[in-house]
Amino acid sequence: MSHQTGIKEELYCSATAEVKKDVERDFDKLVAPVIEDDIPCYILYRLDTKISVGYAWLMISWVPDISSIRQKMVYASTKATLKTEFGTAYIAEEIHATTKDEISWEGYQRHKNAFAAPAPLTTREEELVELRKTEINTEINTDTRHQTLGGIACPLTPATEKAIEDLLNGTYDYLQFCIDLEGEEIQVSQAGAIAISELPKQIPEEHARYHLYLFKHTYDGDYLESFVFIYSMPGYTCSVRERMMYSSCKAPFLEKLQAFGIEIVKKLEIDSGSELTTDFLQDELHPKKILHRPAFAKPKGPPCRGAKRITKTQELS
Questions:
Q1: Backbone angles phi, psi at 280, to 5 degrees
Q2: Suppose 238 and one of 24, 125, 142, 242 were both cysteines; which one would form an S-S bond, judging by CB atoms 3.0 to 4.6 Å apart?
Q3: 240-259 helix and 123-133 helix, angle to the nearest 10 degrees
Q4: Which pTM value belongs to this model?
Q5: Same domain, yes or no: 236 and 185
Q6: Shared-domain flag, residues 28 and 77
Q7: Domain for residue 96, yes or no?
């Protein structure tokens, strides 16, 4: 606009057209002819909808990629002025187009759909959405999962309950559990008697799992058998739903294990099986105690203070 600092160009109306049928059918017929491949322009297109001040208008900023830098700067600088002069209240929608497919009726619909779509969610927001999806249904029976203050209690399959009983009877010393995300129940996926050196190989690298291991070891000359519960989660290689289900079902599942009579001495959360070594489990179950706590040593004074001075009080005559 001529009154803007540094801009000597003036806006003028290069074309007008009358409504023929309706907004949708007129759009491509009226807009396409005024578009030039390399020359930017503004297009004000009246819509059928009415607002408080009258008909709503669509403002299209056509600035093709091949237009010069100066043209792009001029049109970017004058857009606000044009809206003010035309009447900002009348402009209900805006489109900034750089290719011709964006300035068609189909492109306009894509723009509206994208504008109406919800904003991208953060990881935390995705987890909250998935958590809401896993909320309890109104139909409740002994086999359905139910939500508690500590999470979501998924039912155990009969095979899982049998494996836990066999673990208590000494048949196994290691059980691995997985959650069936479709059926929303906890299944035993692996059972066996393994040495501690074989434990890291049992941890999947792409899926979350629960593990229950009977750690047989000695401490201070005593032979001990301690149940260790391990929750393995290999980071973000798992889906959001899988992460949320394993996190939400852990506490209720631990309660069920304790109901079977399993006293879990230690609960661990890991992202890699490489952490599971004998020394690691020993340190987790029996942390080293600091027997000697050195007393606070008073800092010494500065050296070479010099000889102590004696001040003699003079008697007044």
A1: -65, -45
A2: 242
A3: 50
A4: 0.49
A5: yes
A6: yes
A7: yes
Domain identity same for 278 and 149? yes
Q: What angle do CA 261, 263, 267 make, to 5 degrees?
A: 135
Judged on CB neighbours under 10 Å (0-12, 13-18, 19+), 33 is exposed
Give yes or no: residues 269 and 197 share one domain.
yes
pLDDT (tens, 9 = 90+) of the chain, 317 residues, equals 444 555 567 888 888 888 887 888 889 888 888 888 888 999 999 988 888 888 899 999 999 988 888 888 888 888 888 888 889 889 988 988 888 888 888 888 888 887 776 666 676 666 666 666 555 443 444 444 555 445 688 899 999 999 999 999 999 999 999 999 888 899 999 999 999 999 999 999 889 999 999 999 998 888 999 999 999 998 778 888 898 899 989 999 999 999 999 999 999 999 888 889 999 999 999 887 765 566 666 677 666 665 666 565 555 54
98, 158: one domain: no
Q: Domains in the chain: how many in total?
A: 2
Q: And the tokens for 71?
A: 């043209």
Answer yes or no: is 203 within a domain. yes
- 250-271 core/surface letters (b: 16 or more CB in 10 A; e: else): bebbbebbeeeebeeeeebebe
Residue 313 burial by CB count (10 A; 0-12/13-18/19+): exposed, middle or buried? exposed
